[in-house]
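Need the bound structure for zinc ion, inputs here:
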Amino acid sequence: MNKDKKKIQGLPAFLSVMVFVIVAALLFFIYRGDITVMAESRAEKGAFNRNNEDEMVSELISDRSGYLRIPLPDTAEESDITVRDEPFKKLIFVRINGVDEDYYKDNFLSGDMTGIKDVRYGYQDGVFTVELETEKIRVPVTEYVRGGYFIKVASPAKSYDRVVVIDSGHGGDDPGSVVYGIEEKKITENVALKLRDKLTSKGAKVYLILRDDPVATDEYIAGIADETDADVLLTLHTGADANTRITKGVSAKATFDIKEKAKILTRMLSEACDQKDLGLSNERLSGVAEITASPCIWLKLGVITNKEEALKMDSEEYQEKAADTITEFIDKELRREENE
Ligand SMILES: [Zn+2]
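Answer from helper R.:
Posting the output first, comments after.
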């Protein structure tokens, strides 16, 4: 007994220094806000508490900085995990299959919550689901390692070299111009859908808004372009000249920052679709183009009051070719060289 006591009293000075350093580092990490969150219980959705300090230290050492870590049992493979997002609702879902329900009673989420407003989770039929509600429209960046799934949220512009917001221009109760029994919205919606698929397959990040949803107002659409740092907000329309019914051709209006590019687009379309190039129109910007802070092209695919052109735009062949050409334009002319 006496001997042990002596030993402790005789602690070398450097050990005291080490203790001081560890405590200082711990306080630094707490101060920096690398808070560790934990699931209080699976029954309490979204309830997160500060972890105890011992666990916090070990988590911080093992975690990737900037990521939220979802612990995984050693048996969980990468193929057990699926990630899905609903960007307009600002939600990202991580589903983990085949995990024992009790596992998440003792293993807690931890790490960085930057850009994440709320975390909810639940367990049902062998699937543990984590639902992240983001502050803005964000894309998930993930990394799997055995024993942990790391996820953070990033601006689309940081993850993709082209971010495109497509607005169908009309939809729902608003058919746009209706001439010769042809609805403008049918043309613009068809092109918008084709464009989404073509651009997505070329690796662009696309946010398509069809105006059949009552929520899709000009303000809503402009907000999505601004929130995603879109390289272009493309709003699709047809032109009209009811007085002469002679005018035909492709034209555009554009915000100042993308006017020169818009000219290239109307030229490319006119060549590909055998249409007259009317170039940039002098009309003042209106609707979504007037509100958004993002580069915006208001594209008039053709003039619907001209019968020949209306029938042409209504054809599958035209819509396919127009979507191909707009895709080529965005690929060639709007690709950012580097992600800053
Ligand atoms: Zn229109």
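Comments: The chain has a mean pLDDT of 86. The two ends are 65 Å apart (CA to CA).
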